[in-house]
Amino acid sequence: MTVSYDIKDINLAEQGRKRIEWAEKEMPVLRLIRERFARERPLAGLRISACLHVTTETANLMRTLAAGGADVVLVASNPLSTQDDVAAALVAYEEIPVFAIKGESNEVYYSHIRAALDHNPQLTMDDGADLVTGVLRDRPDLIPHMVGSTEETTTGVIRLKAMAKEGVLPFPVIAVNDSDTKHMFDNRYGTGQSTLDGIIRATNILLAGKTFVVAGYGWCSRGIAERARGLGANVIVTEVDPIKALEAVMDGFRVMPMEEAASQADFIVTATGNKHVIDSNAFAVMKDGCVIANSGHFNVEINIPALEALSVEKRQPRAFVDQYILRDGRAINLLGEGRLINLASAEGHPSAVMDMSFANQALASEFLLRNQGKLPVGVHALPKELDREIAALKLAAMGIKIDTLTAEQEAYLNSWQEGT
Predict the structure, then answer these.
(1) Is 366 flagged in the annotation as binding?
(2) Is it the case that residue 214 has pLDDT exceeding 90?
(3) Is 403 annotated as a binding residue?
(4) Which phi-psi region, left, alpha or beta, contains residue 288 (left: φ > 0; alpha: ψ -120 to 50)?
(5) How high is the pLDDT of residue 1?
(6) 297 labeled binding residue
């Protein structure tokens, strides 16, 4: 079989294969789904184009979809999020076409998006809604044949809901990010650990005793805040939502506007899904040597053009660190070009948490195909029973047992007649 691909180096395949197998040991739920998919072939003949971070965990998802009979193509969902050895292993050992190179230019990135759409997918699997956007803008001819799409990220769900609100979303989408077994675990524990991992690898600066600002207090941001506090940092949270701000206060964090927080910060990390969360007013008051990073999906959370306009010099003292020297002599250190720092300078989320996220992706693709023509156009959550199935499988794999309701308890919960 001849596989089309555009990767860095096919000779990295053996190294990638070993790392994929290492990750797979921490992904028992996905492994069980893959075993069932191999028996039942529920995705037989389905063309899937996936735009995801090309990591060891994603490789195991691709293997699962292929085991289910899908014809899969994988492209990167961020120019810096590809693990080149993993891309090589998928091509060499799994015969899955991959178009992804770490550090690829924006031009190459979008050529890879086009390659994914040239696969004529019936289902797209997105991490940021770039494939759905590409279908709407460039390949509307694909729409009549589309079963639907799945979406992994908060940022992508925001974009998709905006499409639905404008009436331009043409098919059903499963918001995998809205599953409890995704956002409560992947976003909080995965983003929390991997973001701090990326920052530490990029800087090797001790966090204990530093002032660490986290923009936002959604599931991703609260995970970052919790992990930074666990490493001894003095954490400040900024928010625009009064309920989330109140929650952050009740969780023991200081809360204040970004401009005030930026003047105290040694580190600032964004994870909001919005643009220009760190802007000129924050740059103006930052301390010399402040480190800024982004863990949101797109690199627009930090206003990098504004930072460049304020600067007279740009240096790179370390890999993944761009140091901007301002006119007054202050240095501001931007990590990973403002892209996802957990993937730019580290390896992304641990496989144990991605096990649940990608179980959701696999079951969502099966659910969409089984319900083809039955789901209305719009953004949907995966049914709760599938969410609970994933949680139950994860607990079983961890050797943890829980209680079950008795018949009497079931009857009580479904009755209004019995009281005090």
Answers:
(1) no
(2) yes
(3) no
(4) beta
(5) 56
(6) yes
8 Å CB contact between 245 and 211:
no
CB 93 within 8 A of CB 61: no
* 55 among annotated binding-site residues: yes
Q: Would the CA dihedral through 174, 81, 108, 12 be positive or negative?
A: negative
The token duo for 61 is 């998802």
Read off the CATH number of the domain in which 36 is found. 3.40.50.1480
Q: Is 161 annotated as a binding residue?
A: no
* Same-domain check for residues 139 and 23: yes
Query: Is 222 annotated as a binding-site member?
Result: yes
Q: Give the pLDDT band of residue 420 (cuts 50, 70, 90).
A: low
Same domain, 116 and 170: yes
- What are the pLDDT digits (tens) for 379-396? 999 999 999 999 999 999
- Give residue 125's domain range: 10-182+349-397
Residue 127 marked as a ligand binder: yes
Give mean pLDDT, residues 42-65.
Answer: 98
Predicted local distance difference test score (pLDDT) of residue 95: 97
Domain count, the chain: 2
Residue 22 marked as a ligand binder: no
pLDDT at 197: 98
77 marked as binding residue: no
Rounded to an integer, what distance in angstroms lies between the CA atom of residue 36 and that of residue 32? 6
Q: Give the CATH number of the domain where residue 310 resides.
A: 3.40.50.720
Same domain, 237 and 133: no
**Which H or E element spans position 125?**
strand 123-126
To the question of whether residue 406 is assigned a binding role by annotation, the answer is: no
Q: Is residue 212 part of a domain?
A: yes
Task: Report whether 195 belongs to an annotated binding site.
Answer: no
Residue 384 labeled ligand binder? no
Q: Is 218 annotated as a binding residue?
A: yes
Please tell me whether 221 is known to bind a ligand: yes
